[in-house]
Amino acid sequence: MHRIDIPQSVVDRVIRHRGRAHVYESFDPRRAALVVVDMQNAFMMPGVAHNLCAEAVNIVPNINRLAAAMRKAGGTVVWVISTFGEASLENWPVLHEMAGPERTGPRIAALAEGSVGHRLWAELDAKPGDPVVVKTKYSAFIQGSSDIEAVLRARGIDTILVAGTVTGVCCESTARDAMMLNFRTVMVTDANAAMTDEDHNAALIGFYLAFGDILSTDQIVARLEKAAAPALAG
User: Which residues of 205-224 are buried (b: 16+ CB within 10 A; e: fewer)?
Assistant: First the structure.
């Protein structure tokens, strides 16, 4: 698990700008979604992954805890999966220019529809009723990448909790764009995974300072359990 290191100076700056350390510590679960990004074999399975993020396996228990608590409280769990194919060579050539042919081929092979790499990690607690969104860019929300905005709006969702891998790439891109589309957005500190602690914390800090909130799994689950209690009592 990543060592979370958010300097007090960063928290102090957030408090100066927003009046408190956590602006989304309280939210209505019925209007919230856990958005799980790219927890696929293509990033997690040795021998299959084109860009292995070994830390991603360690956040699976926290993602499953969040998913269970979210469903129990009346919220939504959305699984976002990356897809790459020959068409991406035409609609996103800059990525492949940067990566070069040596990495473009393995990326397409690992993330092709129907491949082992394209599948969600088997230990994730995905349920048949959970929406699955396919994206073709780092951000799920950028124009032309996926239909996630329409999926969330149709359910009346205004708050999203972002988990998954890689923290500073697809997760942060998705979270930033969600905020700019007017979703209240939280990145879960211990349910995102990057290549290093330094990468992970840098992404969280950048997002926290300007785009949204960061909360731990324990903080979110406690809020969801509190919200679910009255419904269960009734």
Answer: bebbeebbbbbebebbbebb
Answer whether residue 180 is part of any domain. Answer: yes
SS (H, E, C) 44-84: HCCCCCCCCCHHHHHHHHHHHHHHHHHHHCCCEEEEEEECC
Q: Do the Cβ atoms of 145 and 83 come closer than 8 Å?
A: no
Q: What percent of the chain has pLDDT over 90?
A: 82
Tens of pLDDT along 5-58? 999 999 999 999 999 999 998 899 999 999 999 999 999 999 999 889 999 999
In 83-223, DSSP assigns E strands to 132-135, 159-165, 184-193, 213-215
Q: Which residues on neighbouring strands pair with residue 133, listed in sequence order?
A: 80
In a domain, residue 2? The reply is: no
**1 inside domain:** no
Q: Active site includes 137? A: no
Note if 170 is an active site residue.
yes
Tell me the chain's radius of gyration from C-alpha atoms: 17
Active site residue 171: no
Q: Per the structure block, which two tokens stand in for 88?
A: 């991406």
Domains in the chain, number: 1
Catalytic residue, chosen from 53, 130, 135, 213, is: 135
Domain residues for the domain of 85 are 8-20+27-233
Out of 53, 130, 170, 190, the active site residue is: 170
